[in-house]
Amino acid sequence: MMEDGTIIRLWDDSGEVRPTEDEQTPWKVLKVLKDVVVCVVAVLVFGLATCSKASFLLLITLANEGTKTILSDHKPVALLCIGCSLVASSVLLLLKSVWKACHKTSKLPKCSTAALVLFFEFVVSGGAAVLTIAAMPHLDIVSNVAILNSVAVISSLFQVIAQCSANARNRFLVPSIFAFLLILLGYVLFLTLYITKNPADTRTVVWVGLAVGGSFFVSFNWWEGYFQLISKSSGSVFFKNLCQDLTTCQNVLHILSSVLRILVTACVLGAYVPLSKMDWFVLKSISRFETKVIVITVGVQLISSALCHWFGLAACKMHALRRCFILPLYLASLAVLALFVIPVVVYYEQYIKGPNTTTVIDFGGYCDAVVNNRNQSVTGSVFPQLVLDVTQTLCFLGITKVSDIGILTGSSASLWLGLVLATIHLWQLNVSRIQRTQDLFIRRLYEGAFIEQSLLLNTRFDIQTTGRKKRNRPIETVMVYLCATMWHETYDEMMKIIISMFRLDKYRPKADPKFNDFTFEAHIYFDDAFEHIGRSEDVQLNKYAKNLVEIITAVYRTFTNMNGTLFRRNEPIPDQKILMTPYGGRLIITMPYGNNIVIHFKNKDLIRHKKRWSQVMYLYYLLGFKLMTKFYERWQKGETEVDIRPHIKKDKQNTYILALDGDTDFQPSSVMLLIDRLRMYPRVGAACGRIHPTGSGPTVWFQKFEYAVSHWLQKTAEHVLGCVLCSPGCFSLFRAAALMDDNVMKTYATKSTEASHFIQYDQGEDRWLCTLLLKRGWRVEYNAASDAYTNAPEDFKELFNQRRRWGPSTLGNIVDLLGDTNSISRRNTSVSKLYMLYQLFNILSSILSPATICLLIAGSLNFIFSLNSIGALVLAVIPPAIYLGLCFKLQANTQILIAGILSVMYAFLMLVVTLSIIGSMVEQQTILTPASMFVIVIAVIYVVTALLHPQEFRLLFYGVLYIVCIPSAYLILIIYSMVNMNNVSWGTRETNPTAGAERPAAKAQLTTAEKAKNTLQKFVSCMRCKTCNQREDTTMILEPGQHELEPQNTIVEDVRVPDEEETPNNDVSSSQRWVKELQDLFKNHMCLKKDTLEKAEQAFFKDLQEKYLKPLDNDKEKQTQMLSDLRDLRNKVTFVFFMINALWLVATLTLQIKSDIFSIRIPKISTNLSYTGEEVLVEPISFMFLLGFAASILVQFLAMIHHRVYTLIHFVAFLDTEPTEPVTGGHLPENKVET
């Protein structure tokens, strides 16, 4: 015992511990993966750039009049392929721009802007066509490699001008000057080499002149970026208007410029062929050998150019600019030069050392003996002929002197070094994670003819001043509010989210100047946190709220290593604040690294409770009050609205709300990945992460696979094709500007007054909020690398009640979006009518799922028992039809009990269905029936998808349970959710006990009198139901010990009916006992100092309560009317829903009966893929439905691959720029801490 009387139990030293570090993410494996990905991308960029350049120069060589692989009369086909390489990127840009112009807002540019852009495009496209079609086919291979590097001449000149116009000493001014001079030197050496060979040869003079002029004109291609830099320093109005037009009118300008480029290239090509005395009609007479060579070469060139551009962009986005972009592209030209020259040297050496060579022969003699006198050979390998063609270009130049070789080498080296110096600023370029393409590259267009030059010169040029190693762009600090809602979470669940908040506090210390990318503040809104003490007016915190404070003290000690030693008591936690508020109370905890957790204890007698109203509370408090108050104070001090408005807009853009549930477990990296999405893309209003359900048991296993498939395929498809329709409230990041937009936050605070409101607004509030964002034109995204974990229902009843809320809400919100398709597609640039058609098909598939399950079961009964179609379908429909009728009469608990029994029966039946499909394949000796192919394709897609998610591959084994539970999920559950649509209770966490709390007493045995009374009440209830032909939910009879579930977020739910002797307390001043009690309870852990709320904030909360959050009145008449309206809505929706299914069943059955008339005949293919001569009859409606569903899954699969690649890029960039060591904070006691 200590001096102060505290008991130290030395014998009770051990305890249960919980690790606080990240145990989910395999950081070491991910680091290795990052290195592998970086190496692979670097190799791909280098290899693709080399292939693109080599194949293009090979086309140039084939167009040379002296080469033999393509006959001299057939040269137009090679020239045509060169033209295709020039315009391929323009065609792609034209298609992309037309698509964006049709589905997004496009503005028309000014005439002066359009004229200037078209002028430069005419000069560039004309120069490129003249250079590659007219000039380069007459030059040697080395000069062709080198002359392409000269396209940096104007860029280097613009760099000099831009840096000289800036009011600072610039780091790269000297390299830019030297780059310009080196390129000019290369031009001089190139002209000297060719002109001095034969000054009288005017054709050669023309060719080299066209080559220099063409490359000079092409170098104007990247003028836009430099004009933008010059406009910033010059202050010219013309330049500013020009740059603004270039940004806002991109789509229209790209359409015009692409069309002009195609036309100019076609005109140059069409004019050059007849001027060179060639004929286009030879295209009809080229041989198969020539066609094969040309098609392969141009195919490699087009594909490698496009892929090189994409991988180069990926390298920049994943923050590997130097390793995977700059260095590989620098080396590509050297590799191409070696690729062409080395075989020439090797063949020459083999010839002069061969047995047939008796005298010493120089290169000129080799050309005369071997190269010039050969004929086309269509047999054997094509490689030797291509090597001799390349040699032919060098023979034409007649390089026999050392001085000629020196001039050629000097010219090539000067031009290559000029390119390197003109792009050396890229080594110091600051690139953000997942940098937007328009911020990386000046133009969307790449040049396939000189891919590495276009990628290097198209990259953004920043003016960097001397005296600094790197000019970093200023990072705007964003403010993130973590907002969690709590109610009856268990001790273990609250522990998870508190640990997560303390992790984030350690990851981003508030006072550390090194971390200025974001700051955060955590808020926990605790619903119904108070309970009355007996019958008195005094209130105290309930056991859930006290557990939360206790957890915070335990986690605080763990993260600060404040646990006591063997013989010393624990040190106290620093003083914290406790406040009385108009809505209840507030506890402010300053975490060890300076960030705050603010716990708002809500008293439901003072303020409206439940989750949506807690969200309304923090939206108006954090965004409406805290964000806007500071600007109001500035306005009061004399600042004008014109001055303040830009700052308000900026703060709205840079303020985020991270919505959390009370049991969410997340890592700091997950938050950072979501912040990246909103920081990079201003029109993203919300982003959600990958939600992992946790728990144990078959119910959780089913949900694990269901969540996996939903995120793997459905959410990724929504992200890629349009927008995510639901950003879960358990882990989603929202932008303040989006939430504060018109018809979003204001509409979200709407009180439900109609029956449809209860379904759409209150049963799935997160989906409704996303619906409001989509309608206002905001984009909602999904980040698969941002993981979060939340508890899933482990009980069958709880799962059914949860899905009873989600199902109707999902249906209501999607129908709302579909009904507003025209306005949404006009306002939201990410949502097209085609995407809404995709959603329409998905919702129709969901509506028809009960009928589809019945047809599936009927088919199995037909196969197993040889029943006819009518009998099998009747047997399949009878059980769900009976359950449908019972759901209108029985209590919810009884419905769920029957659903559980049916689910077990259907699980066995589903196993039989699966085996019957396999048996059908064996019996028919074919796998190419629609059902068989559908099953095989779906299975392959799921397996491949799981392989692309290696960390989650184990979830694939839960798919077996998912398959056998399909009838339960898509038949029984749908019936239950539709029939109970009028039940607006929450359904989950209704009776969860707190960890350590006593279990509720066992249900009392009913006496004979009680049983008789209940039986009589049930009989009367049933008679009333029969009389009014409706289900009366308010007459549900409860057994002793059973509590009726409170409805959620409606007039029906929010009413708290007080006991006769209990008077609700609405006076804050009389309810301060809980403060003293909490101070006494935790006095040995921390000192809770009482503080007061500022007057402005107190007035705000009173106004907020009065306008939006005042507890609802107990209006029995309105409740009764609303119950009636909910039943009417339920009856209407249920009638339409199941009538559609009935019509589908009847139509399918009719076509099956008349299969000889209406069936589609498909040739029967055996298992060895041979035609059997027989035909398989397929009912057309089912076939089209299966085909549509398979197409939908295939689209989702392709979208998943696209999304997976970009997720990998983002995650690699994150690993390269953020600390990846797991947070190590020791171990956290799992049980309550004793001192």
From TrEMBL:
Tagged with keyword Transmembrane helix: yes
CDD domains referenced in this protein's UniProt entry, alphabetically: Chitin_synth_C
UniProt keyword list: Cell membrane, Coiled coil, Glycoprotein, Glycosyltransferase, Membrane, Transferase, Transmembrane, Transmembrane helix
Catalytic reaction equation(s): [(1->4)-N-acetyl-beta-D-glucosaminyl](n) + UDP-N-acetyl-alpha-D-glucosamine = [(1->4)-N-acetyl-beta-D-glucosaminyl](n+1) + UDP + H(+)
Annotated source species: Betta splendens (Siamese fighting fish)
Compartments (UniProt record): Cell membrane
UniProt topology in membrane: Multi-pass membrane protein
Transmembrane segments: 36-64, 76-95, 116-135, 141-160, 172-193, 205-223, 252-273, 293-313, 325-348, 835-858, 864-884, 896-921, 927-948, 955-979, 1133-1155, 1176-1201
Keyword rRNA-binding: no
Protein name: chitin synthase
Family assignment from sequence similarity: Belongs to the chitin synthase family. Class IV subfamily.
UniProt-recorded Gene Ontology molecular function terms: chitin synthase activity
The gene coding this protein: LOC114866017
Enzyme Commission numbers on file: 2.4.1.16
GO cellular component terms listed in the entry, alphabetical order: plasma membrane
GO terms of biological process kind: chitin biosynthetic process
One Pfam short name: Chitin_synth_2
